[in-house]
Specification:
By secondary structure, the chain is an alpha+beta fold. Helix content is 23%, strand content 26%. It has three domains: 34-83 and 121-159, Ubiquitin-like (UB roll); 162-202 and 222-264, Immunoglobulin-like; 277-607, Endonuclease/exonuclease/phosphatase (Deoxyribonuclease I, Chain A, 4-Layer Sandwich), CATH 3.60.10. The protein contains 14 helices and 30 strands. Strands 3-2-1-7-6-4-5 form a seven-stranded mixed sheet. Strands 18, 19, 20, 21, 22, 25 and 28 form a seven-stranded mixed sheet that branches. Strands 16-17-15-14-30-29 form a six-stranded mixed sheet, with helices on one face. Strand 16 and strand 17 (380-386) form a beta hairpin. Helix 7 (327-340) runs parallel beside helix 8 and helix 12 (463-484) runs parallel beside helix 13 (503-510). The chain is elongated. GO terms for molecular function: metal ion binding; poly(A)-specific ribonuclease activity. It catalyses: Exonucleolytic cleavage of poly(A) to 5'-AMP.
Amino acid sequence: MWRFSGVRATLRGVRTAVGHCSPAEVRGKAAGAMERAVVRCVPSEPKLSLSFALADGSHKNMQRDQSEPLGRVLSRIATNALKGHAKAAAAKKSRKNRPSASGGADPSVSGPEPAAASEPVVKLYYREEAVAEDVLNVDAWQDGAVLQIGDVKYKVERNPPAFTELQLPRYVMAGFPVCPKLSLEFGDPASCLFLWYKEARPGAAEPEGGGPSALPPSSPTSAWTETGVRERVYTPSNADIGLRLRLRCTPGNGQRFGPSRELESVCPVEAGPGTCTFDHRHLYTKKVTDDALVRTVSYNILADTYAQTEFSRTVLYPYCAPYALEVDYRQNLIQKELAGYNADLICLQEVDRAVFADSLVPALEAFGLEGVFRIKQHEGLATFYRKSKFTLVGQHDISFQEALESDSLHKELLEKLVLYPLAQEKVLQRSSVLQVSILQSTKDSSKKICVANTHLYWHPKGGYIRLIQMAVALAHIKHVSCDLYPGIPVIFCGDFNSTPSTGMYEFVISGSIPEDHEDWASNGEEERCNMSLKHFFKLRSACGEPAYTNYVGGFHGCLDYIFIDSDALEVEQVIPLPSHEEVTTHQALPSVSHPSDHIALVCDLKWK
């Protein structure tokens, strides 16, 4: 009898062939294959879970203390199995006594009355030896062990890959990528298996007693047909309109697979909005760029927390159909637009935390990108990078207000600002943040790049606040790119809420701003705060000065930029913005064909 005495640490690492799923098991158990007993045992939790199906078809999920002796669990399993046997016998007897159509007993149930069942023998084996009943659960339930309940054997799978969350978008549209949101334990998305099905057209053969929604989720029948897509992302076609989708997911970790799960779309596939503002732009970005180029996107995607206000619906965007302002609709457009750029870097502003986690991460992860998030207050910033080209080696985010007050880098600037108490108070009330990510080339470790992302204060009269925020940003970026990572180039993206005629833009491009610039009095003489500023960089706007990057009913102008270090980087290509006719097809932005009130900037950059 196996007692596991003194070998806990050794056995924790044991993984035998019987604990792994073969491809045949992933796609359905072969005849006579051993059942599975799945054990989840995490050191930081007091209990482990045990899940398996009894012979009567019932499924058991047990929570037991890790420190409990094995014998108690086996006794409980035996009791459950006995109850299941009794229920099955009672059901068989009931069917036998049920009158048939001819008036006699049901002929489909034959055989003698079942004898009273005795409690089945329940044992746990490891390496073909019975595990002693005084062994603690934490040690007993090893991967590769075999649980026997009567005549049925189960292979024990300890901590196999498993989904902790799996969900399809609420709305799916033809021509727009559908990507499940998923979270995993003991696995990774890249090692999972996916198989998409679509509902059969009405009138196709259906199982007796109901349509697809009545089917058991374990196996597709003739009411569902395979699409042939075995990737995480499925893009429905017009032929799918009116049909629901089903996805079978099998979690994996590169070595083995866990139990499959299936889910169906809540609503059928809907028709898309037709031509979108970004469709023509995608013609320039059909492929990922080669290693010498860095395709960069900067985009304010319009936070849901702002789009869903009564003020937005009635005052800011009264021309936009209400459904087109809903986050479930806009996410379809955002995902398709961003995926179609095949970008290496994507800097986003106005990103809701839930949108980042539930929509952007799963969708862009499926297209080879990984992202980091920095919350501001109600929303924040997100930076995504292509994993095949870059690895993240450092993050140096700041809050402008906190950095200005506490970082010695900005001591001189703060000393100037304290001379203007009203202006100082307004500056320190702002919650704006700066996201700074250091990326290293996967092909050449000597190549690193500093990617900065921000969203400056929005108010039209806040010119002097934006000047000070930019001064803080550039001083911090200089510290990161010159002191912490000497000599690396800078890409600075964002919604700067400043047109090319403003002091903020002049400061960035020229390298200085005089103390008598009119923007120091942007909110009136009371808040005037004259000071001269300089910065270290030679920056240029990679996409130039478009007529506008923000187009709403009451305003249009260029507020967004991709600033680059002109000493180290140059522009290979700027992806044309949508035409004015495309932008104004539905009067202004956002619209049914464009998800934001801003337009994405896209360009291909290269090292000099």
